[in-house]
Protein 1
Amino acid sequence: MSKGRTSYDVIVVGGGIAGLGVAAIVSAETGRKVLVLERFPMTGGRMMSYEGLPEEGWRIDTGLHFVELGEKSCCTALNTRVGKEVAWAPFSESVDIWNGEAFVNIAELVPMTKEDRNAFAGILAGISKMIDGDIELWDNRSFEEWMTEHIPQPAVRELFTDLGMIMTTIPNAIDMAAGEVLYIARENLRKTRQVLQASYPVDGMEGITRGLVEAILENGGEIRTNCEVQEVLIENGRAAGVRVPSKNHPYQEEFRITETESLLADRVVCALPIYSLSRIIDFDPRTSPLPRWWLKRITDIRNEITGLVGFMIGLAEPVVDPGKRCFLTALKTKHAGLPFQAFPASNFSDRVAPPGKQLLHTDIVCEHAEASDKFKRERILNLLWEDLKEMFPGIEKKLEWKLPYYVDGCDGLARQPGLVGNFKPALKAPGIPNLYFAGDTWLGRGLAINSAARSAMTCADLILDDLRREFGDVIP
Ligand SMILES: Cc1cc2nc3c(=O)[nH]c(=O)nc-3n(C[C@H](O)[C@H](O)[C@H](O)COP(=O)(O)OP(=O)(O)OC[C@H]3O[C@@H](n4cnc5c(N)ncnc54)[C@H](O)[C@@H]3O)c2cc1C
């Protein structure tokens, strides 16, 4: 190691739930010297939340978020593993769907006969008994195909399509990976006896990541924000550390080349989405330290993502019954013509809005190309506002503020056949034994937050196994 260069046991690139999770477990369970590097001023990544924004008394997340399974979720398990708790608001009571005139309970939207209802119950019972191997067989096949084989009743198929849309944010069953829908449904049925319910931490998304940050710091780990990693150093077939900006000279922006210094580590974890990876690892097959087949696989799938465009809305008075803990959705809105979701977070937690006021999270699910184009995005936002005025009469008059937002890759990789379960990229780099990955675009299952939390636990276990192999059962 070069003289004067700091060294760590593990450097984690990215302070989202996955990076914080890996760092928290490794520091809590081994006491090793761990450093998390995050490019933004705050940790949390796509789960960042802000207190006092846009005004005193409000707490908002970066867009609409709900977590499946709440206290029985992987993100609770991740916190528990490092001795921390997440305070959850009670589960949602209903999923209501827009029928063009009103939000109605999902069961009312699809008229079902007694036979249909019996068939629905039978199918749920069957899903709850599926074993992992049964589900994996469907990871590369469409949910439409699964329904054709298993559900003769059109009404029941329609109901399952609606549920699948909420789980995958993909509107058509033909594009949904059957394995993922079946897995999410099975876990929810086994743990909550419902196909899907929404949970929300009383402190917003920060309520999930705060304990991980505390665990890292309490166990001697370090977190450095405002530090955008420029490159993962790979020397002689091993990860050696990372390069980070060394100084900000006045013309850095214009010159476009950042001056860097090295931070050395025995192990490096890239806890950032696969679509950001080529910013820190060379992807040119002629010079990259990673094999050509792997680079091609990552390049082929890295843009298989969906986008979200929406408004976070603060209301002087509620537009959704404040006593109702619901998740609202539409398969296709009238104006934007796209799938829609809304979540009145203040109906779940009284800590996110001032008394008597309502915080409404809303979004429209669209293709990455539409969300990332400024002009298309603007048009979708205008159409969404027209939809919101019809769905929530009086919203204009009650409006205190509304913040538009957009995000690419909201849910990690699109949950399409061949992009879920074991088809997702593995957590260890091929040929580089001390380079790991974690996050919702890497191996893991469940809705995105839980998938990221699960991948953090699996990645940490791989690191612990490697340490044991190197140092024996007692990790020094
Ligand atoms: C608007 C929105 C709505 C969502 N809704 C839901 C929902 O309802 N339910 C659900 O389950 N999931 C939802 N998700 C997805 C969920 O937020 C993500 O699955 C989860 O946060 C992913 O965590 P992660 O740690 O894998 O990645 P990230 O949170 O993206 O973390 C990666 C981190 O790496 C940092 N980083 C990147 N490059 C560098 C670099 N070069 N150097 C240093 N740091 C770097 C980033 O700043 C980021 O903090 C939503 C996401 C968004 C944005």
Protein 2
Amino acid sequence: MITEEIIRNTSQNPNICYQCGKCSAGCPIRNYMDDSPNKIIRYIQLGLYEKALNSDTIWLCAGCLTCSTRCPKEFDLAKFMDALREIALKEGIKVKEKNLLKFHKAFLNQIKKHGRAYELGLVREYKLATGDMMSDVDVAPAMFMKGKIGILPHNIKDRKGMKDIFEKTEVKIK
Ligand code: SF4
Ligand code: SF4
């Protein structure tokens, strides 16, 4: 049962959400999503799992935590979205948004390798995976100048510990 799996993986119960909508009102990505973030919780509350798992909302969520910090019930919606992504992958549900899964994998690979985000590695891996080498190259110089992209990664001390976490928890994609 998916609700139990979410509770087990996140230590949170989606049924505590009373649908006030404060999370969605503050979500910076809301305008690009099919369904509002609180609607995804509602789907789960009603047992409409297919609707939740097939919504592009769970993939467009940037994990920014705005919703989690605003929620009067202290429901960590960002963590909930993570759990849904993981379940969707395990269930073999296709991601509708073009290249989004490639971006997701490229991002997680940086965390696995370096222990934190490494933007240049992310861009390189994503571009190689998609074959889209030229888009956004015009913004690269400004990003370098402003220090938004570093040449070298800033590795955490315990990289082996991070790799172990991934090995124990990584979802095998169907
Ligand atoms: S802010 Fe919290 S209680 Fe309100 S709809 Fe969002 S998750 Fe539910
Ligand atoms: S964590 Fe996701 S759902 Fe929550 S505010 Fe950020 S983008 Fe929106």
Protein 3
Amino acid sequence: MANTSVSTPESVNKDSAASNEQALPPVPKQEKTQAGSNVGLKGGVFLTKKTNADSIFIPEEWNDEQRMIADMVSDFCKMEIEEPIMKRGYEFDASKELDLIEGQLRKAAELGLCGLSISEKHGGLDLDFNTGLLFSEYIAAGFSFATTIGAQTSIGSLPIVYYGTEAQKDKYLPGIATADLIASYALTEPTAGSDANSGKTSAKLNAEGTHYLINGQKMWITNGGFADLFIVFAKIDDDEKLSAFIVEKAFGGITLGKEERKLGIKGSSTVQVFFNDCPVPADNLLAKRGEGFKIALNILNTGRIKLAAGGVGGAKYATSRGIKYAIERKQFDKSIASFGAIKYKIGDAVMRTFALESAVYRTGRNIDLKYEAFKNGGMSQSEAKLKAVREFAIECALLKVNGSELACNVIDEVLQIHGGMGYSAELGIEMGWRDARITRIYEGTNEINRLLSVAELMKRAYKTKEIDLMGPTKSLPFHIAKTRVPFKSGKGLDTEERIVDNFKKAFLLISGAAGRKLKLKLVDEQEIIMCLSDILGEAYIAESLLLRVQKLQNKQMRSKEEIEVLSSVVRLYLYEALDKVRKQGHDAIAAYADGLEQSMMHRMLDWLTPRYDVNAKELRRQIANHAIAKQEYPF
Ligand SMILES: Cc1cc2nc3c(=O)[nH]c(=O)nc-3n(C[C@H](O)[C@H](O)[C@H](O)COP(=O)(O)OP(=O)(O)OC[C@H]3O[C@@H](n4cnc5c(N)ncnc54)[C@H](O)[C@@H]3O)c2cc1C
């Protein structure tokens, strides 16, 4: 076959209808992960290996203690955040109310919420990673306070938790756990945003060798207006790479800009921070010289999946409010919840939220298991924690993108359900809409995270050779020719399993062919990478959702009625995702291939993503009716 970058077929497949449908050697069977085995504990490997449903964690398995933490955070948000904001008519302005925010942080600390990841020795709760994600989910109902406490418990303190010396931990972590010390993370600069390593902030050791003098300007620093501590990233002398420092405000040489005027999260403090010969004791260097960028990236990995959990929490919160309002609001003598157009929005929100939740906690648990495996292998606790999150960097990036877009899309539709009242400041829906928007920008913009997800996968496939993408790709065309029939939904979820498989194949097929054709130039073709990232994201989320519902079925962990509705959630999600995979796939193919190769690739993608015969309207209605009957997000 002329000039094709897909593996060359060797013999004609007699079953094929078209003349250029040809067969390849048989497809190697996908290895299945077993419950308890750690095959599934390799990041990105979901793409080439099948996972056993019973081996994944599902949120139905939260234990009593974890549920208690979730309830406590939920009560805290209602009493300490929502009520004060409501009293202010949903106006909350950090520039005038820093004391109030500080007070809220202290109250959260009294409940232990500022020390979730801090060891008990240092006054924290030392929770496992997945319970930390559960906290992020529930604190999302605290609107902008989620950002404030996120900076305290995540980006502002984890650099010390993971990289600090014992002396640094002893000195700072107890204060962070009680919120006597407010923490912040200062990476971004006016000329260094996404390109964070290009920062100009400098650090010079003084002649006595006792202090670094830090000079420079940081921007968009969350909690900056009332922070006692800044994790500052700066370059020592002419270093190419950043170093990280623990900087106390009390060291002097620090001035703050005015509170930024922002679109949303107005209840969080965001300022510029100026360092003018700020003297930082040499002992306050975090990790080794030049390791700052690594620290910054590793901390962001953690933040990304937390942000996704927050997206799930925000979406659940908004969906519940949308459902309640829709039931109460009457037009044309009927509750608007009875209208198909409104049910569409409710059904869609529930379906998307449930799907993403499945992927977030599947990943969170895998991070915990990987941590245990590393620790049992002799790694220190901090290193094991970091490496475990790093292992799932691909999933974290995909989840960040999808979690933030979920939150933004759901709150947008919930605002629409509220009509004019959604647009008014009176109910706080518009505040949620504004607040959600930042999630697509910070912790790495969604563009950067889409690029990163694919780049990281390619690195593991072709540089470190941790994932075999080539093997499964070679035998794909044969397999595709065998599977090119429309999908018909049956009684079980077998068809749906095939659809998920085909998402993975679509990714492998297109990424393999594009990679072979463009080689290193692929990194400059960002439009193609964006498409690939979307396909990869759908493959992971769809699979996580399917596995969760299969596990629920196997273990009968929900009522028969709920499992029926959840089977509809799977079908509807796949129906929507199929469209996206098909579109993004064709876009990518058209962008890199031409001539015969292009038509062949388009055809193979069509075979992988044929029509899926379901009644999407009925599925959405069924899900929406279930949610409306429960009068809130139902699962
Ligand atoms: C409210 C708020 C709070 C924040 N809190 C903190 C904090 O506490 N600490 C901190 O250090 N930072 C913080 N940030 C900064 C935040 O992380 C950055 O805004 C973010 O990383 C993007 O950087 P930037 O704003 O400079 O945008 P830019 O990097 O200039 O990006 C602009 C656009 O270009 C795109 N782009 C950039 N590079 C590429 C590329 N290579 N390929 C494709 N597209 C690209 C981006 O995706 C984006 O769409 C905060 C920001 C805000 C708004």
Protein 4
Amino acid sequence: MHGGNLRWAKEHYHVDEFIDLSANINPFGPPVGVFQRLQEALSQIVHYPDPESKALRLKLSQLSGIPYDMILAGNGAGELIYTLLQALRPEKVLIPVPAFSEYARAAAAVHANISYWPLGAEGWQALPDCRLPERARQVEQTWLGILNGIDLLFLCSPHNPTGSLLPPEGFVSIMRAAERSGCLVIFDESFYDFTLDALRWSAREYLQEFPNLIVLYSLTKFYSLPGLRLGTVFAQPSLIRALKTARDPWSVNVLAQEAGLEALEDRDFPGWVREKLQESRAFFYERFTGADLRSLQLKPTQANFALIELKEGNAQQLTERLGRRGILVRDCSSFEGLEGEFIRVAIKDQGSMARLIQVFKAIHV
Ligand SMILES: Cc1ncc(COP(=O)(O)O)c(C=O)c1O
């Protein structure tokens, strides 16, 4: 089960309005120009969308420096995960867990044999520091063993649900191992834009160095368009061509293409959102610590969401109790590879975070 299902929540909790911390979406909405652009684009819905999403891909190419023929747009990163698996048809897939559940569902849909690698609640923080060449070699060697016989590896950073970052040196060690073992890597950086400026690096920078690398990116989260859907894949031109033949040519509708273009044109928006969210994150961590919620442990994060471990009680019950009080959080019981009881909360505006803490206190957790 995913977060963000408001129709289900309304029916289940009999509540009309929620603070939704169950889906990791930028709470400040899309760039202002997007609504105007959508109004203007409405008359275009009588035509088929451009199957090439040409204007959008040119924009992404201009902003990222990645050649146009290495970019594909899709109906959200979610659709592209399925399209990738359909086109690649791997026999053996490795998923470090906990992980976004659609990796396993998409792999199962093409009858792949799925293995899991335990990352645990620390996520990528558990990976040794590969800035030291000796450690980097050790990690490469370890992953060479882990990837033995694997056709496709999923990596995710910032990592859902732990909020941890895979540092570039660790990424390179794993990529070297993958290259040596002939394994393809899907690197999901759907939460890339939320990372603090000082820590930001993109796997897109490594596409030339590692032809086995496929980078997945979502515009629905940071640009707050989950209901419209927009995502992209960056990969070798031959794979982009194969992906096009594996799917519906019109999956990216006219409005999503226009909204994406408009969103990417607003160059002040990313810094503004990051700054606001950084303030919210600092506020939340400070207030949480001050609230002395002894049965809950808030884990560190470098993204726009965080895990909270329950020292007592169970996650499903806590999720229900919060839901009845109009706050939706993600019960993490369904995540493979997460030992213990956890919920995941999105970091939203300060008012929402203050309300969460107030409710925690009211229900005596
Ligand atoms: C890690 C990760 N990748 C991809 C997606 C899918 O994103 P989109 O909304 O673009 O389909 C999600 C959605 O929650 C996610 O958490």
